[in-house]
Predict the structure.
Amino acid sequence: MYRIFIRGSRELAPAYNEYLSYVHPKDRDYVENAFKKAINGKPYSIDHRIILASGEERTVHIKSGAIFDEKKSPLE
């Protein structure tokens, strides 16, 4: 993520809401729906666009899922 967002390794990766602010407006619902599915136990693999602070548009691929505890609460 550091290379994608042109950040130094000592800087924090963007938090969820900050990440969504970079997502192209036309892709935002798509990305939010994928995240919600992951929280409900469905892993995902999607491509979408982000717009950096410089205005540069990039296409990124995300593959993710959630890890749950024994009570089915998401941990990660």
